[in-house]
Design brief:
238 residues, mainly beta, Porin, 14 strands
Length: 238
């Protein structure tokens, strides 16, 4: 239960600082930790939390954590990501965001790796490109660059509902070396109820052709339904 203690510590830190200007903390309960169509929790529920600081200049920094399950024989139960970046918007309403993420696994540092990203957005649309020069860290053999391109849409609906769509493609040496470049997508709805955001989506990454022999639901990319409940502190008084 060590990972739950670390997540709880992150939560207490977020609660203690969220009252400060520019600081927020988001907590999510998910039926599955979905990462680009692939489960990171063996299709079991995940508790996820973050603490973030955003300056008026557009600079931001934060940390995010979740329980994970990489299967028997792999002593990894927790993921903690740290990130920083800069975002803004032009006078014409074109949004942009560039930054860097460091994915860490306190139980096994060989899985740690960096990933850079950049995105543009306009109205309901957001496009984003990710790049890592060593995807998967030392857990893979040799240097393994990887890209991930994604497109996302959020379309407002009546009664606090939102239609949400996502499509992504994973490519680069990490995937092509095993002939496993793949496409993933999701389609779902979001609903805002007071200070809580609920989401229900259909996820499919089954285009992935994997032959690693992982057992059961570990790293499964099969189609499935994912449900999430999230809230961000400090709560709005509106």
């Amino acid at each position: 239960m060590r990972h739950f203690r670390i997540l709880a510590a992150l939560g207490m830190l977020g609660a203690a600082t969220a009252a400060n200007a520019g600081v927020s903390s988001t907590w999510t309960l998910a039926s599955d930790y979905d990462f680009r169509g692939i489960t990171q929790s063996a299709q079991d529920p995940a508790i996820q939390g973050s603490i973030d600081y955003a300056a008026n200049s557009g600079w931001y920094v934060g940390a995010w954590g979740s329980n994970v399950d990489f299967g028997p024989g792999v002593g990894v139960d927790l993921e903690v990501d740290v990130y920083t970046g800069f975002s803004g918007q032009s006078e014409g309403g074109l949004g942009y965001d560039v930054g860097l993420v460091y994915y860490t696994y306190p139980d096994e540092s060989d899985y740690n790796y960096f990933e850079a990203y950049g995105s543009i957005s306009k109205d309901w649309f957001k496009g984003k490109l990710w790049y890592s020069n060593d995807f998967g860290g030392k857990s893979t053999s040799g240097s393994t660059p990887a890209f991930y391109a994604e497109a996302n849409g959020a379309f407002p609906l009546p009664k606090n509902f939102t239609l949400q769509a996502h499509a992504g493609y994973s490519f680069g040496d990490y995937w092509s070396n095993s002939n496993s470049e793949y496409f993933d997508y999701s389609l779902g709805v979001g609903y805002t109820a007071g200070n809580f955001s609920l989401g229900l989506k259909w996820v499919d990454g089954s285009d992935l052709k994997s032959s690693d022999g992982t057992p059961g639901d570990v790293f499964s990319s099969e189609s499935r339904v994912v449900f999430t409940v999230a809230t961000t502190f400090p709560w709005s008084n509106n």
